[in-house]
Specification:
The structure holds two protein chains of two kinds. By secondary structure, chain A is mainly alpha-helical. Chain A has a domain at 137-280. Chain A is built from 13 helices and four strands. Chain A has helices at residues 2-25, 31-57, 65-71, 73-81, 85-131, 168-173, 176-191, 194-207, 212-237, 239-249, 255-258, 263-275, 282-318, and strands at residues 133-135, 144-147, 154-157, 163-167. In chain A, strands 1-2-4-3 form a four-stranded mixed β-sheet. In chain A, a hairpin with an 8-residue loop joins strand 1 and strand 2 (144-147). In chain A, helix 8 runs antiparallel to helix 9. Chain A is elongated, with a radius of gyration of 25 Å. The two termini of chain A are 19 Å apart. Chain B is α+β, with helices and mostly antiparallel strands. Chain B has two domains: 2-68, Winged helix-like DNA-binding domain superfamily/Winged helix DNA-binding domain (Arc Repressor Mutant, subunit A, Orthogonal Bundle), CATH 1.10.10.10; 72-113, no CATH class. Chain B has helices at residues 2-17, 24-30, 39-51, 72-85, 89-93, 103-113, and strands spanning 55-60, 63-68, 94-96. In chain B, helix 1 crosses helix 3 and helix 2 (24-30) packs across helix 3 (39-51). The longest helix of chain B has 16 residues, at 2-17. Chain B is elongated and about 50 Å long. The termini of chain B are far apart. Residues 113-123 of chain B have low confidence and may be disordered. The chains are: A mainly alpha, B alpha+beta. At the A-B interface, helix 5, strand 3, helix 7, helix 8 and helix 9 of A face helix 1, helix 4, helix 5, strand 3 and helix 6 of B.
């Protein structure tokens, strides 16, 4: 039981603190590595919490004996001698109910959010296909849908196949280089399946809004996929072209209205682009993803062990 | 399903290019396609488009004449409004290059900022 509680507490602590830490890193770390960090942190918290619930269901003392003996003999003695049969029974039932509720919420949220989104995308795409002119993409690349509108817009819709949508207004306002950078940015979203990543974050947040890590994920993930797509586009078309496009599209020429929405993300992107020297090497990227992933994966377990150790010390002092 | 969507797009394109309302026969003649389409196929597509509100029709003799409910530019503007400005759809279904300020938001902002030097110069 001690271990079960420590595992759950460890998961809860990491779920509360990790979003704050990961947010701090956004400005300094390769966005791909950070996306991996978020995913692994979510997974590690889920696995730790699941292990905690599983430990609760293990009958009686079996779960506690080896590790507790290792961690602290005195606490174990207290646990072993107490008349706790009823408590263990309740914990067993509690763990099963919580686990079943969590799975049910996840499935419900995936169906509700995921299916609704897929339907909406299909509806919008059907309309836009009738209105726009399709420009076929290169081999293995998605087509671009050109709309006749003066609004300078570019966006991508996920799905298979997804589509890049852009307007004549955008083409009129940007230089060919900047336009190429914008389209490269949108194609990077589709190639990287960013819509899917965002949808997963949304589903998790809708299922467990009371978990800080999951509540913070959609916003952070949206920001990170923009940075990832920026890095791709800057590699293809050069950072200057992309900066010019960002400044132009966000209406830097109209300062009174430009303070509206999404400015912080755009400012962050501009700053990252300004700092960028050369595209990250594959080896460097893999090693960064690996190290950050390892840290994220091990943190809940490390916190759990720390809690157990502290508990045994406290028990030692009291006993 | 996707084939039908393409056919709808092609039929709308024909109607948008034409100055006058067209009969099914006219649409069929103007469709440039690899394979010959059946009259009834085009009629079904036009019927669908009418049901969805894309086209209007009026009886002319024994046949309907079809014309677009709105110009391509108007329909595009409306579709973009539906997608970007209304509800939380945009946030959910698409990834923007960068969120420029929407028409509605800039109107709200202009209202909040009070009459400025830009007022009155709007088209």
């Amino acid at each position: 039981m001690t271990i079960a509680v420590a595992l759950l507490l460890g998961a809860a602590l990491v779920a509360a603190v990790a979003p704050w830490l990961l947010r701090r890193l956004t400005r300094f770390v390769d966005p791909v590595a950070l996306l991996v960090g978020w995913a692994v942190a979510v997974l590690a918290v889920a696995v730790t919490a699941g292990a905690g619930l599983a430990a609760m269901t293990v009958p009686l003392y079996a779960a506690d004996s080896p590790l507790s003996r290792f961690v602290g003999g005195r606490l174990w003695a207290a646990v072993a001698t107490a008349p706790q049969y009823l408590l263990y029974q309740l914990a067993d039932t509690f763990a099963l109910v919580v686990a079943a509720a969590a799975v049910a919420r996840l499935v419900w949220s995936a169906l509700r959010v995921g299916l609704a989104r897929r339907r909406r995308v299909a509806e919008h795409l059907a309309v836009l296909r009738v209105l726009g002119d399709v420009e076929p993409g290169g081999p293995g690349e998605p087509p671009t849908l050109w709309l006749r509108s003066a609004r300078p817009l570019a966006f991508s819709l996920g799905g298979r196949p997804g589509a890049v949508v852009a307007t004549d207004g955008l083409r009129a306002q940007l230089t060919p280089d900047a336009l190429a950078a914008v389209l490269a940015h949108e194609r990077a979203h589709l190639r990287g399946r960013h819509h899917m990543v965002v949808a997963c974050a949304d589903v998790l947040a809708a299922a467990f809004p009371f978990v800080p890590l999951l509540r913070a994920a959609p916003g952070a993930v949206r920001e990170l996929v923009e940075l990832v797509a920026d890095a791709d586009a800057a590699g293809a078309s050069g950072p200057d072209a992309l900066r010019a496009a960002l400044l132009r599209v966000t209406g830097a020429g109209a300062p009174d209205v430009a303070l509206a929405i999404g400015r912080t993300a755009v400012e962050l992107r501009l700053r990252v682009l300004a700092r960028r020297r050369r595209p990250p090497s594959l080896a460097g990227r893999i090693s960064r993803c690996g190290s950050l992933g390892m840290v994220a994966a091990c943190t809940p377990l490390a916190v759990t062990v720390g809690l157990l150790w502290t508990a045994s010390r406290v028990a030692g002092v009291l006993g | 399903m996707r084939g039908l969507g393409e056919l709808e797009a092609a039929v709308m394109d024909v109607l948008w290019r034409s100055a006058d309302p067209l009969r099914v026969r006219d649409v069929l003649d103007r469709l440039v396609r690899d394979r010959k389409l059946a009259y009834t196929t085009v009629m079904t597509v036009l019927d669908n488009l009418h049901r969805k509100g894309w086209v209007q029709r009026e009886m002319d003799g024994r046949a309907y004449r079809y014309r677009p409910s709105a110009s391509r530019e108007e329909a595009t503007a409306r579709a973009l409004r539906d997608l970007l400005d209304a509800s939380g759809d945009a946030e959910a279904v698409l990834l923007h290059f960068a969120r420029s300020v929407s028409e509605r938001e800039s109107a709200v902002l202009r209202g909040a900022l009070g009459p400025g030097p830009g007022e009155g110069r709007l088209p």
